[in-house]
Specification:
Length: 117
Amino acid sequence: QVQLVESGGGYVQPGGSLRLSCVASGSALVVYTMAWYRQAPGKERELVATFTGTGSTNYADSVKGRSTISRDNAKNAVYLQIDGLKPEDTAVYYCNARSIVTNNNYWGQGTQVTVSS
């Protein structure tokens, strides 16, 4: 079992940047595929970025080129940097961990990102 706590959300103007953090406890993240999802009001939750156990990363087209997902195994944390924020990036961002052994899924409580002038 792993517990995930996100932080770093907030209110930012268009064009700004944010770095979201997700700190895990209860298990080492090296045995999980980590991901960030987001859910905007009235929309389904969507995948933003993934970081696999082998170190490969993938991004949604909507954030590709202006977003970086990274992982610090020593701190048991995963991060999402988004630059050039747009109003359509406004959403609750969720950290996700999926065990590569059991395929169990774990979610954080989410952190709100609001992009507005």
